[in-house]
């Protein structure tokens, strides 16, 4: 998967900004790649990008139409299809984060074939992976792990990667979810891989590299989450991480989607992640904590960071407000 | 999946008994279901069952032709196809453990449709699973876990289930791999499920039941195995097991397929499995150890069992030689 940029961001008739959350993440992290947005009649989402037609997007150099928006009811509506078909004819590749595959829509598949365009269904890995080998490989790897799902692992990974780049370190961001894949221009939706190959897909994603190169691998889920822990462990083993960063959202009252499950204690979560990571890399350790404090009142934010830093003995930052400098310092 | 029995066991032209390992397991555990074997010219495997033609199998009451044999080079040869096509026309369903799907072979798929037969590709789950809910459900569940892959988890599960049945306990064997699925007449190959749904598929496999009913769930892999631990953890969480039985093969010098990985220490393996299991069921504990002593010299077998029993403080048996009575006693 090698999605060409720049992008024209397709928002369809998204009813609100939340439906365009993926596109919004891409536009925030790759402002240089996102030249414009294409909105159909009735669209109520806005990325703050110039509105463009397909023609204007092409003129601005766009190579890929990125569908980073949720569709309603699992059906791709006809007015979206019209735009996507025209885009293929005009010269765009299309990269989609929809559950429904573009490649399963006959008209799109045949237009793509006919015109030599590519369709990327980023939620649906198409390549065959091997079973993980587990053998030690050169290069350094950092993986974000979480007390829960959706606590800022992608954001923290990107902030760390950005800091590494600013410092002139050799570093790559390795995406494991749809938003991250658009931001990286490639990656693997590890939660959509066949179970036997979770770790193998992760090994493929962050392979051997220069000894002083860091792969910053986007984590998924949590070892403590009853729905997704298998994915998290497969990723932890496949990444063979040297450094882990624990991500946390302190206002959660229970694990996402699981009302009966309290969040794990931070020290416990750190210990379990280190223990499982050390099965494949004895040097693995949690080197810092990244806390999403956006839901705390302003006067509580710094206090909570200080409390967690004291409790864990690890550098603790809100990567959004403060950047990831202290996490990179800790490596 | 609800595979009808009795079975006619299709061995094709298997070059040796190892190639018919799956069929052999089925014949051993379900002698009443396995009425005969169908061998093509050149077959060198033998289950010790009466040789039957398709006609003779039908006359003996067989309802399903079971393909429990490895094919060579990932291709289903023409002479196999001829037999499978004829079987469908004559009245058989076909259940296959091949990597290649029968349902992908046009002639077989259309014959099955035309004649109202069913094709079961047991390695390839076809139903859609939900994401695991994690909520506590009634009924008791026992899961076999391992220090490694292929250490006797299926065998131990079946021995426990058999003992429970002999004692008049309410119990079901829940299969998670191809041999187990043929033996149970249904199940899910959990390692072939999309990663997000490992735990959800397991919840589906062993759902709510009577308070005094035991589901005996066949484990897969090991939390310590760098290739497959994600599957093992998803299964551990989805099973929400009350009781775990640790399976072990004491002559292994390293994890299967991973020369750099020593086997975990038993006490460590017990602690980690209990810790991860308790995330979804705080009452979970390892209640016994099942050791495959077949590769030890006869004079060492009992000594090794006694050593492990002393080391772990848990009832330790070789379920093959001694049955699972002491494990069921420990519940």
Describe this structure in words.
Two copies of one chain form a homodimer. The first copy, chain A, is of the alpha/beta class and 331 residues long. Chain A folds into two domains: 7-121, NAD(P)-binding Rossmann-like Domain (Rossmann fold, 3-Layer(aba) Sandwich); 140-329, Rossmann fold (3-Layer(aba) Sandwich), CATH 3.40.50.300. Chain A contains twelve helices and eleven strands. A six-stranded parallel β-sheet of chain A has the order 7-8-6-9-10-11, sandwiched between helices. In chain A, strands 2-1-3-4-5 form a five-stranded parallel β-sheet, sandwiched between helices. In chain A, β4 (93-96), α4 and β5 form a beta-alpha-beta unit. In chain A, α3 runs parallel beside α4 and α7 (198-205) packs across α8. The longest helix of chain A is centred in the C-terminal third of the chain and has 15 residues, at 298-312. The radius of gyration of chain A is 20 Å and the shape is globular. Chain A starts with 6 loop residues before the first strand and ends with a helix. The model of chain A has no long low-confidence stretch (mean pLDDT 96). The interface between A and B is large, with 38 and 38 residues.
As a whole number of angstroms, the C-alpha radius of gyration of chain A is 20 Å
Largest Cβ-defined interface = A-B, 38 and 38 residues
Strand order of the largest sheet of chain A: 7-8-6-9-10-11
**Amino- and carboxy-terminal Cα gap of chain A:** 30 Å
* Tally of alpha and pi helices of chain A: 12
What's the helix and strand layout?
Two copies of one chain form a homodimer.
Chain A: E1 7-12, H1 21-29, E2 34-39, H2 54-59, E3 64-67, H3 78-90, E4 93-96, H4 106-115, E5 119-121, E6 140-146, H5 153-166, E7 170-174, H6 178-184, H7 198-205, E8 213-217, H8 229-239, E9 243-248, H9 266-278, E10 285-291, H10 298-312, E11 316-317, H11 319-322, H12 325-329
Parallel strand pairs in A: 1-2, 1-3, 3-4, 4-5, 6-8, 6-9, 7-8, 9-10, 10-11
Helix pairs in contact in A: 1-6, 3-4, 7-8
